[in-house]
Amino acid sequence: MLSATRAKPGPRPGPRGRCVPAAPSLARIAALRAAGKSYRDIAAAAGVSYNTLHSIVYARCGRGLTAELLTVAQKTEAAILSVPFAAGVS
């Protein structure tokens, strides 16, 4: 029987650690793209695979997911958020 209560929002366990909302990662990727970096450049600077980055960016296509529902592993988020902007971009 299903419980009538819903789980609390926030980090949830995932296959490789805790998952967090992807919105900050998506925003950082968009800002880096606007600064002229390619997806491959961002992936290399973050130390994640191009496929991982591609999956985050394009996961919503065909699945009806919104940025609020999409999650990423905490380690992946930390790696993406640590990518520096080019000089002169804030």
Structure described in brief:
Helix 2 crosses helix 4 (74-81).
Number of helices: 4
**Helicity level:** 40-55%
Give me the side-by-side strand order of the main sheet. 1-2-3
**Category by helix and strand content:** alpha+beta
Tell how many strands the DSSP assignment holds: 3
Provide the number of structural domains.
1
Taken from the alpha-carbon principal axes, the silhouette is: globular
Report the average pLDDT across residues: 78
Uncertain runs are none
Order of helices and strands: EEHHHEH
Task: Describe the main β-sheet briefly.
Answer: 3 strands, antiparallel
Q: End-to-end distance, in Å?
A: 51 Å
Query: Which range does the strand content fall in?
Result: 5-15%
Q: Which radius of gyration do the C-alpha atoms yield?
A: 15 Å
Write up what this structure looks like.
A 3-stranded antiparallel beta sheet has the order 1-2-3. It is an alpha+beta fold and 90 residues long. The model has no long low-confidence stretch (mean pLDDT 78). It starts with 11 loop residues before the first strand and ends in a 9-residue tail after the last helix. The chain is 41% helix and 12% strand. A hairpin with a 2-residue loop joins strand 1 and strand 2. Helix 2 crosses helix 3 and helix 2 packs across helix 4. It has one domain. It contains 4 helices and 3 strands.
